[in-house]
Design a protein that fits this description.
Blueprint lengths: L1 E5 L10 E5 L9 E11 L1 H8 L15 E8 L11 E4 L2 E3 L5 H4 L10 E2 L11 E5 L3 E3 L6 H4 L5 H11 L7 E5 L3 H12 L3 E5 L3 H9 L4 E3 L9 E6 L6 H8 E9 L12 H5 L4 E4 L5 H13 L6 E5 L3 H9 L6 E5 L1
Parallel strand pairs: 10-11, 10-13, 11-12, 13-14, 14-15, 16-17
Antiparallel strand pairs: 1-2, 3-4, 3-8, 3-17, 4-5, 5-9, 6-7
Helix pairs in contact: 4-5, 4-9
Protein name: Probable alcohol dehydrogenase AdhA
GO molecular function, one term: metal ion binding
Pfam family, one: ADH_zinc_N
């Protein structure tokens, strides 16, 4: 099968990805083989390609927002008949036994593994995944519109849970890419007032068409204090900016897996009055199920740019340079 592998992690301009011909993988016990219809491009893929996240094995196929159909089921599988439409996401496995797994916090499992990092992902014709970590998907939606839900959607949903936005509250969203534009739509549907702060004029325009109350520059002050904020941009310098924009008792959740350095915080301006700074780490399967049920019942508008499978390197380059709004999706 055709695939892309991370051959030489480094700046995206140095072409870290390489085309490869790989054998179609065989599903092991408990695994399904999925034929890929579409795979969305996540900023984490860019961090893996550029080496911000160190490789865990050589020449791994990236991609963890995969829509496809079960092509074969391995031994000891029960969940999916061949032909079933499924999604494969970032969380690939957890131990199920550690203190975090037992407390419903499997996203913190020290033995967790990840699609496209610990195992080959969806920038390929096929991939295998443990069936317990695979999600059923609706038959009728285009693969291109479903793929971004699998990480951008799910992680944004967890970030929204983590920022403790009160009902009808004022939410600030810093950075407005694939995940943010999906998260904003849930918050608005639930009655929040959403203020978007981002450097991209095109993203500010998209935010307003999706129902944001305001859209300003990344370091601007929102028009009113915020009850909660989510930082989607991987820019540590925005942490104090967002903390300063919070009202008393507000919470800032940092959604990214990678963040540049955070400048010094000033206790009085950034944290006192019970403001809280939190991170968001991956997601649990319950988050995935919760979000996908919500997105199936109330389908969001998913802004996508389709790239042919052959153009994965160009899609990552365009993501690095902010050349599109919404999510890039590789379509086979
Ligand atoms: Zn565990
Ligand atoms: Zn992702």
């Amino acid at each position: 099968m055709d695939a892309w592998v991370v051959a030489r992690p480094g700046p995206i301009t140095s072409h870290p990805l390489e085309r490869a011909r790989l054998p179609v993988p065989a599903p092991g016990p408990g695994e399904v083989l999925v034929e890929v219809e579409a795979c969305a491009v996540c900023r984490t893929d860019l961090h893996l390609a550029e080496g911000d996240l160190p490789p865990r094995r050589p020449r791994t196929v990236p991609g963890h927002e995969v829509v496809g159909r079960v092509a074969a089921a391995g031994p000891d599988t029960v969940r999916f008949a061949p032909g079933t439409r499924v999604g494969v996401a970032w969380l690939r496995s957890t131990c199920g036994r550690c203190r975090y797994c037992r407390r419903g916090m499997e996203n913190l499992c020290p033995a967790s593994t990840y699609t496209g990092w610990d195992a080959d992902g969806g920038y390929a014709g096929y991939l295998t995944a443990p069936e317990d970590y695979v999600y059923p998907l609706p038959e009728d939606a285009p693969a291109e519109k479903l793929a971004p839900l699998l990480c951008a959607g799910i992680i944004g949903y967890r970030a929204l849970l983590r920022c403790d936005l009160p009902a009808g509250g004022r939410l600030g969203i810093y950075g407005f890419g694939a995940s943010a534009h999906l998260t904003a739509q849930i918050a608005i549907a639930q009655g929040a007032t959403v203020h978007v702060l981002t450097r991209s004029a095109g993203a500010r325009e998209l935010a307003m068409t999706l129902g944001a109350a305001s859209a300003g520059g990344a370091a601007d002050s929102p028009p009113e204090p915020l009850d909660a904020a989510i930082l989607f941009a991987p820019a540590g310098e925005l942490v104090p900016v967002a903390l300063a924009a919070l009202d008393r008792g507000g919470t800032l959740a940092v959604a990214g897996i990678h963040l540049s350095d955070i400048p010094a915080l000033d206790y009085r301006r950034h944290l006192f009055q019970e403001r809280t700074l939190r991170s968001v780490t991956a997601n649990t399967r319950a988050d995935g199920r919760g979000y996908l049920e919500l997105a199936t019942a109330y389908p969001p508008r998913v802004a996508t740019v389709a790239y042919p499978f052959d153009a994965a390197d160009r899609a990552l380059d365009d993501l690095a340079a902010d050349r599109f709004e919404g999510a890039a999706v590789l379509v086979r």
